[in-house]
Design brief:
The chain is 26% helix and 41% strand. It is α+β, with helices and mostly antiparallel strands. The chain has a single domain, classed as Outer Surface Protein A, domain 3 (Alpha-Beta Complex), CATH 3.90.930. The protein has a twelve-stranded antiparallel sheet with strand order 1-2-3-4-5-6-7-8-9-10-11-12. It is globular. Mean pLDDT is 77; it is low at 1-24.
Length: 237
């Protein structure tokens, strides 16, 4: 609680920093960044969990499978699969599978039940594939209730051709305990899985208060080695 109050007081004082009071703003952003980075591990586990959830659900019995669109935006069919109540352990209510004109699966959208068993409060998960059948990204969407609790509304994880994670994009929202400071963050990873940099994009009201648009942290072996602040014109401070 003390840290939260301290952060608010520093933030208010830095709101006068239209002339780029770098020291004050950096203190504010670093305190906020600590909170965001702390939640990174949990968010990654959630992303991994929803991916396993959707894939594993393909192996359980379906109550009904039907074509709901003969020609979708990819040129192929869209198949809707609904699940029997006894198969509700994965918490999936239904799944949409999108194919292209030659039968390649390009997208899988899973809709989760919003009940007590859905403790993660994810209402939708999306898997995107290329025409070679390789997973390119996984999207996780949280319920409004969860977004208000955590300040996180959506997480998208991108993969390369070797199924290695290359980028994680997190979209933020206002929460019950914090005002919205960032609109989104983007974490970049090397082929070895190490985080190389994180870009934090400030919400519009923070841009107006501080004059800054983006903060970039560069990493080496898990430690921040450089920090850059940008205004909307791309100038570095």
């Amino acid at each position: 609680m003390f840290q939260r109050q301290n952060w608010i007081s520093k933030k208010r004082s830095s709101s006068k920093a239209i002339g780029f009071d770098r020291t004050g703003l950096n203190t504010v952003l670093k305190l906020k960044t600590i909170w965001l980075i702390t939640g990174t591990v949990m968010k990654k586990l959630i992303v991994f969990g929803i991916y396993i959830l959707l894939i594993s659900a393909m192996r359980i019995s379906a109550e009904e499978s039907k074509v709901v669109n003969q020609k979708n935006k990819y040129g192929g069919k869209t198949v809707e699969i609904t699940f029997e109540k006894k198969d509700m352990e994965p918490k999936l209510a239904k799944k949409l599978v999108f194919y292209d004109s030659v039968g390649n699966k390009l997208k899988v959208v899973g809709f989760l039940l919003n009940n007590d068993s859905n403790t993660s409060k994810i209402f939708k998960g999306v898997e995107n594939y290329n025409q070679a059948g390789k997973l390119t990204s996984v999207e996780v969407y949280f319920t409004d209730e969860k977004s208000k609790q955590t300040g996180c509304s959506k997480v998208i994880t991108h993969f390369d051709q070797q199924a290695l994670k290359t980028r994680v994009v997190t979209y933020y929202s206002e929460s019950d305990f914090d005002e919205k400071t960032y609109s989104k963050s983007e974490e970049y990873f090397s082929a070895s899985g190490e985080r190389t940099r994180t870009e934090y994009y400030l919400a519009d009201k923070e841009v107006k208060k501080t004059g800054f648009h983006k903060m970039v942290l560069f990493y080496e072996k898990g430690r921040v080695i450089k920090e850059e602040m940008y205004d909307k014109k791309g100038n570095i401070y």
